[in-house]
Amino acid sequence: MNKTKQKIYEIIFEADTPGGKLFDVALLFIIIISVALVLLESVPSIRENHLQLLHILEWCITVIFSIEYILRVAIVKKPMRYIFSFYGVIDLLSVLPTYIGLVVAGSHSLVVIRILRLLRVFRILKLTRYTEAGRSLAKAIWHSREKISVFIFFVSMLVIIIGTVMYLVEGPDHGFTSIPRGIYWAIVTLTTVGYGDISPGTPLGQFLAGIVMIMGYAIIAVPTGIVTAEIINPTSDKNTQVCPQCLHPSHDDDAVFCKKCGSRLNP
After folding, report:
1. Are 128 and 121 in contact (CB under 8 A)?
2. What domains can be seen in the chain, in order of their start residue?
3. Which residues, other chains included, contact 247 with Cβ-Cβ below 8 Å and sequence gap of 6+?
4. Can you say how many angstroms the Cα of residue 119 is from the centroid of all Cα atoms in its chain?
5. Counting Cβ atoms within 10 Å, is residue 232 exposed (0-12), middle (13-18) or buried (19+)?
6. Each residue of 103-156: pLDDT tens digit?
7. Which regions in the chain score pLDDT beneath 50?
8. Using CB atoms within 10 A as the burial measure, which of 11, 106, 163, 228 is most buried?
């Protein structure tokens, strides 16, 4: 990797350098503007009066993101790894709809184009890449994945049990026509949503519903506590350096080689 290519790589893929920070901030504002344009275009009065301006701005933003995508593909050692990575797919989806609109024409396909253009909202997913807070939250959720998975498995078993019990207690007369229907009620009640389309009618069912409602408040707080604990006490302090070989992000500050593929990191 020559010096020019390495400099571009550091600016685009890393946020610890001055150039990288400036690049991230600039793209952050562009992403916010692009998402705002998508929202404004959905308002009938704005679309009718300012459609041409919205299209011009959309094309300007699409060109910027297209250049960014091409540069990312061009400077990495393994382009296919980036192209099929999560952010690679998101980057592609954020620019494709505008170009597809040029190819797909005709009144019968306008609905399809409109749906495809909504994929530009995927640009908002790029925000986590350009904000330190987003990276910290993503890392906290990732490091908490095992605990959260166990929690989700426990809640899944709980709603199945509750739904089955309510089906036996209430029966079809009160809307619990099947166990899946009871599970649906358990999920709605446990999450404190409370649509009210199904409600217990017997004293025993209402008593059980009260217990489920109280449990809901405690259960909702569990994943929040897991992620918060990881944010307060992170597993390890890492920087934003990305491996030029496998694109694995977030390495220790004193790391010389990538912990995933063993390749030497940029100085």
Report:
1. no
2. 3-130 (1.20.120.350), 145-232 (1.10.287.70)
3. 13, 76, 78, 81, 82, 85
4. 13
5. exposed
6. 765 444 444 444 555 565 665 666 666 666 666 777 778 778 888 888 888 899
7. 106-114
8. 163
- Length of the chain measured in residues: 267
Tokens 């400099």 identify what position?
Answer: 7
Give the pLDDT confidence of 167-187 residue by residue, as tens digits. 999 988 888 999 999 999 999
Alpha carbons 135 and 263: distance in angstroms, whole number? 23
Q: How far apart are CA 73 and CA 103, in angstroms?
A: 24
SS3 80: helix
pLDDT, residue 115, reads 52
Q: Please tell me the predicted confidence (pLDDT) of residue 111.
A: 45
How far is CA 168 from each of CA 156, 158, 213, 215, 235, rounded to the nearest angstrom? Answer: 19, 16, 19, 20, 46
